[in-house]
Amino acid sequence: MYRHNENELRRAMDRVERWFGEHVAADFFDAGVRAVDGVLGPLLSRWNGQLPEDVAFYEGFYLLDREGVAREKAMMDQLAADERWPDTWWSRDWVPFGTDLAGQLLVVDCRSGRVIEFLHDDDARPEHGESLAAFLAAYADALEAGERRLHNGYITEVAELERYLEEAPKRAAEQRRTHGVLLSIGGALLALVAIAALIECA
User: Fold this and answer.
1) ∠ CA(115), CA(117), CA(120), 5° rounding?
2) b/e map of 110-122 (b: 16 or more CB within 10 Å)?
3) Considering the entire predicted model, what is its pTM?
4) Please, what sign has the CA dihedral across residues 123, 143, 47, 9?
5) Is 93:109 a contact under the CB 8 Å cutoff?
6) Which residue has the higher pLDDT, 18 or 190?
7) Which residues, in sequence order, are CB contacts of 61 under 8 Å at separation 6+?
8) 40 phi and psi, to 5 degrees?
C-alpha cells in the first residue's frame, strides 16, 4: 500500500483548512476519527468528511466521512464484480474520498497514491495529483493565489467563472429568442386548432 509523506500531507491540509476557515466556514471539516487504517487514514484522522451540505469541497465534489468511504468502496467493488468491469473502468485499488452525488468519485489509488476522478459514464480517468499531498498542495496554491473562489456553493476557477459571467447576456438573449419562437409556434398551433374547430362546426 502507498505510504504518504505525512509531513507534506499535513502542511497541505493546514493550508487548505486555513483558507476554508477564512473564506467558507470555520467548522467546514468534521472532526477526524481515530484508528483509521488504509490509504485514507491520514486524511480521515483529521477530516472525517465535511459539515456544510451546501458547499462542495473541490469543484462539485463533497468529502466523504469514514462511513461514506466504506459504503462507496463496497458498492463500487460489488458492481465491478457483478458487471465484470475491467480494472481500467474500476480498480479494487481505488478508495473513494469525494463524491459529486451523481456517480462521479474522487479516489486515491492505494498502490500508486494517485488522485483519480472516476466518471460513471465515460472511460476517461482524469488524474488530479500524483499523491493526495500533491493534490491538496496544488489546490492550496490555487486557493491562495486567488485562482479559485466561492460562488453559488462551488469553489470555482476564477477564469472559468469570468467567462461564464461574460457570456451571461448572450445566454439570456438566446433564451429570450427561444421563448419568443416557442410563443409564436404556440400561437400558430392555437390558431390552427381554432380554424379546425370552425371547419368542423360549419
Assistant:
1) 150
2) beebbbbbbeeee
3) 0.80
4) positive
5) yes
6) 18
7) 98, 99, 100, 104, 106
8) -95, 5
Mean confidence (pLDDT) of the chain = 90
User: Cα dist. 16→19, 49, 121, 155 in Å?
Assistant: 5, 14, 30, 12
pLDDT digits (tens, 9 = 90+) for 25-45: 999 999 999 868 899 999 999
Identify whether the C-beta of residue 48 lies closer than 8 Å to the C-beta of residue 33.
yes
Here the cell at position 153 is: 456553493
Residue 26: phi, psi to the nearest 5?
-65, -30
Instruction: Give the model's pLDDT for residue 161.
Output: 67
> Residue 113 CA to chain centroid, in angstroms?
19
- CB-based contact 108:123 (threshold 8 Å): no
Q: Residue 103 has which C-alpha cell?
A: 456517480
User: pLDDT tens for residues 91-143?
Assistant: 999 999 999 999 999 999 999 999 999 999 999 999 999 999 999 999 999 99
Contacts of 25-31 spanning 24+ positions with Cβ under 8 A: 25/51, 25/52, 25/55, 27/51, 28/52, 28/55, 29/63, 30/65
